[in-house]
Automatic annotation (TrEMBL):
Protein name: mannose-6-phosphate isomerase
Record-listed Zn(2+) binding positions: 116, 118, 143, 280
PROSITE patterns with a match to the protein in the record: PMI_I_1 (PS00965)
Cofactor binding: number and manner: Binds 1 zinc ion per subunit.
Pathway annotation: Nucleotide-sugar biosynthesis; GDP-alpha-D-mannose biosynthesis; alpha-D-mannose 1-phosphate from D-fructose 6-phosphate: step 1/2
All copies of domain Phosphomannose isomerase type I catalytic, residue ranges: 18-158
Classification lineage: Eukaryota, Sar, Alveolata, Apicomplexa, Conoidasida
Coiled coil region boundaries: none
GO molecular function: mannose-6-phosphate isomerase activity; zinc ion binding
Gene3D superfamilies attached to this UniProt entry: Jelly Rolls, Phosphomannose Isomerase, domain 2
Cofactor: Zn(2+)
């Protein structure tokens, strides 16, 4: 085998390094401690500290921002002109010869993302055909976000009873909900979600249906002024969330989200799955996010970007619990797991990806006792390629391979490969991966994520 993961005898590659695309949005973190900046710096994508917002790193082959692929071609030079799809179809020996169906991202969030939903497959095809400049592909976007730090999100609707109870506390904004026109006398009987739908739609269409274009801002100003006049310790969680949202998006209708939507605060390792039509907004924190290979987003608030309210109303799912939370909210993280060290985030309704995280330290802590030194190893999927990304190696996350500071390595079919935070490899099917025991250092944490394609 050559130094780039190729096997000359069989003339194929067994793995390549994936170089992500950096996305800079206003909601991204500007601090140099942001994971997106640390990973970019480690990968040579950030040469010096700056105050730009590094929001996302994309690892994948989406048509709008495909990752580069780093490997040595026949001339001995590093070739970054090919795509991951080229590698899978033409360079890997595995039986899977299709385009990569998933997209993986690292997100560093300093202020709330837009209030949004993602279309299902049928709507995605329709939108892409009619408005390709807004909806760039014809795919759905079921996604899972795994918290890497404390992570906040709105996701899915509260019960109708809770929504009615919340709105009752704020009479100054009843007009925004069309509250007097809604039959809310028996919210527990809202089995078809008609009350919930009407309240939500009334807020989104208030400006469109009201002759006074300033009325929305006037009503929201009354609410904000009252909340600001209340002492911090006397405010509810909902009220503090409304004020936080208003700081970033003044008098945007989306600041009323805490009255309607579930609010979650996740710990590292907790995850949230969001299916088609699920209303949501990530508020703060950092996560690893995996999704079907799509960038279709339908927005209705908390954003200066295009809002497609009528399409969102058509797409949104008004059921309760239309998101899945993988965590134990009352205790330490207890995920569905294959063992103590492998956390399995399998979602049965998703055909494009299957993501797991491996805590290498946890394995050796629990399995290497009484002279037992069994090496942690596994084989990649027998059917499809696997994407490996290093998400945590040290307390600082800073270790640049180019400076010789890589603190860990793995063996791919017995070839030693250095790893550092942010480094990612696309590995062919049926490749053996050995994870050696890390050096004992309480400051270090050795965790990788593996994404494969279900059969």
């Amino acid at each position: 085998m050559t130094q780039d993961g190729s096997n000359n005898q069989q003339n194929h590659l067994e793995f390549v390094e994936v170089i992500p695309v950096v996305r800079k949005y206003d909601w991204g973190k500007r601090e140099n401690t942001a994971l997106t900046k640390i990973y970019s710096r480690n990968l040579g994508l950030l040469n010096e500290d700056n105050e730009e917002p590094y929001a996302e790193l994309w690892y994948g082959s989406h048509v709008s921002n495909p990752s580069a692929v780093k490997y040595t071609n026949k001339t001995g030079k590093v070739d970054t002109s090919v795509t991951l799809d080229d590698i899978i179809i033409n360079k890997f020996k595995g039986v899977y010869k299709k385009k990569l169906p998933f997209l993986l991202k690292i997100l560093s969030i300093s202020k709330p993302l837009s209030l949004q939903v993602h279309p299902d497959v049928n709507l995605a095809k329709e939108l892409n055909l009619k408005y390709p400049e807004i909806y760039p592909d014809d795919n759905h976007k079921p996604e899972i976000a795994i918290a890497l730090t404390e992570f906040e999100a709105f996701c899915g609707f509260q019960t109708t009873s809770s929504i009615i109870s919340n709105i009752n506390e704020y009479p100054e904004i009843h007009d925004l909900f069309g509250y007097d026109r809604v039959d809310n006398s028996e919210p527990v009987k809202d089995q078809n979600f008609e009350i919930r739908r009407e309240l939500f739609v009334n807020t989104l269409l208030f400006k469109q249906n009201n002759g006074d274009l300033n009325k929305q801002e006037q009503l929201l100003t009354k609410l904000i002024d009252r909340l600001k006049s209340t002492k911090f310790e006397e405010r509810t969680i909902i009220e503090n969330l409304i004020l936080r949202l208003n700081e970033h998006y003044p008098l945007d209708i989306g600041i009323l989200s805490p009255l309607l939507l579930n609010y979650y605060k996740l710990k590292p390792g907790d995850a949230i799955f969001i299916g088609p039509g699920t209303i949501h907004s990530y508020i703060s924190g950092e996560c690893i996010e995996c999704m079907a290979n799509s960038d279709n987003v339908i927005r209705c608030g908390l954003t200066p970007k295009h809002k497609d309210i009528n399409t969102l109303i058509k797409a949104v799912n008004f059921q309760e619990n239309c998101c899945e939370i993988i965590c134990n909210m009352n205790d330490s993280f207890v995920p569905s797991s294959l063992s103590n060290h492998i956390h399995d985030y399998s979602i049965k309704c998703v055909n494009e990806y299957h993501i797991k995280t491996i805590d290498i330290d946890e394995y050796y802590t629990n399995n290497c006792k009484d002279g037992n030194d069994d090496v942690l190893e596994l084989n990649t999927h027998s059917y499809s390629p696997t994407l490996l990304i290093t998400i945590s190696l040290s307390g600082s996350n800073n270790c640049n391979e180019s400076n010789g500071n890589s603190s860990y390595h793995v063996y791919l079919n017995n070839k030693k490969i250095d790893l550092f935070p942010g480094k990612s490899l696309l590995i062919d099917s049926e490749v053996n991966i050995k994870f050696p025991k890390p050096l004992e250092d309480k400051q270090n944490k050795h965790i990788v994520a593996l994404v494969s394609i279900p059969n």
